[in-house]
Specification:
CATH architecture: Up-down Bundle
Number of strands: 8
Distance between the termini: 22 Å
Order of helices and strands: HEHHEEEEHHEHHEEHH
Number of domains: 1
Length: 441
Amino acid sequence: MQKAYCYIIIALAAVQTAPVCASGLQPGEERVFTIEEIFGMAEDSETRLKISKSAAEIAAMKVQESRDALLPDMTADLSASYIGDGVLTDRNFSNAVTAPIPHFGNGFAFEATQVLYAGGALRTSVQIADIGRETAEKEVELTRQQVRMMLAGYCMDLFRMRNQRTVYMRNCELMERLVELGKSLESHGTALRNDVTRYELQLADMRVALDNVETEASVLNYRLCTMLGLDTDTVIAIDTTMLGTSLERGMEEKWMSMGEGTPAVSVASSGVEMAEARMKLVRSEMIPSVALTLSDRMDGPVLIEVPPLDNNFNYWYVGVGVRIDLGALYKTPSKMRRARAETAMSRQNLELARREADMEIQAAYARYLNSFSDLEKQVKNVELAAENYRIIRNRYENGLSIVTDMVDASNMKLSAELAEVDARISVAYSYLRLRYAAGVL
């Protein structure tokens, strides 16, 4: 346990001490952030999170709309009109006589309807909207986890690049000393010009690799600045001391038990609830609906009398109505079959999400534990490569080895140091990946 903890601290310490690239990055103020600060900044600036949160807000509005459907429906109508005189004729349209009618007409109507029972359709609609809101909120968390994992990956890549830059710079300095040594030996007649040329070629290759690393670090720094809403000339440095968290090997069962609570599984679970609610809604189409109606109407003049009465006529009523959709008796069965199939498919999706979550956590846990052994091997390789380089250099300085041996030893040392950098970063990244798999990043 202590060994694992120490590896994380060593890995993060190596990252912390890496200097910021000066020539590849744009000049600007260097700012140090913790991982949690970067996650917090992404909450307000990352576009995908903004879109996901907006979708959750819209889903919450739909819940209120569905609840408003439970309230009575009310309509009011007020009208004024000009009425022309009437004309009275025989059945053969002869003997026309003008019938005076009061010319000003007015009308007022009010109607209120309250659904008393609709087979559960209204309540189910509210339930569907509420499940949609919960699903949207869970998708926000899913998007948040994905964005955080992406940011964590960018941070780890930035660590790796800046550590690679340190390794390349250190080896460039070493190769420069070898070039000077080779020139000195050449001046004394103990080395060939060809030997010096080999060193110069290797130094040139290292400088090209250094430029490439600095360029990639600059691109990644710009991307992080854009995602976090920072000025693009800001140089981002990550304070990762908070990641120095130990993990016991015996905690695999605990991590595996967290699979049920991952955002992906939660979204799939809401999908099952949504499918079941929609099946209820389809079933309610076959059930009669009952509604209470209240109406009041006033019209004037009274045209049903001859001659018309220049009065207002008002009447009202209260009643209960029953509505049966007869077409649903033969249309709904096919809808029910589809709803059942969709419910079965949503359950299958939930089971698949659970399995994938378990497999992802198990794989992330195994990779995390394996990252320690990889780091241990790479540390040992660096020690061996450094010892080999020291021996070959001593032999070369004493004329006991050829220049190719020196170049091979230098390449071996460089490769080992770069692999160690990757291994140290991999420890921290594997832990973040495990937290992401468990949905707690």
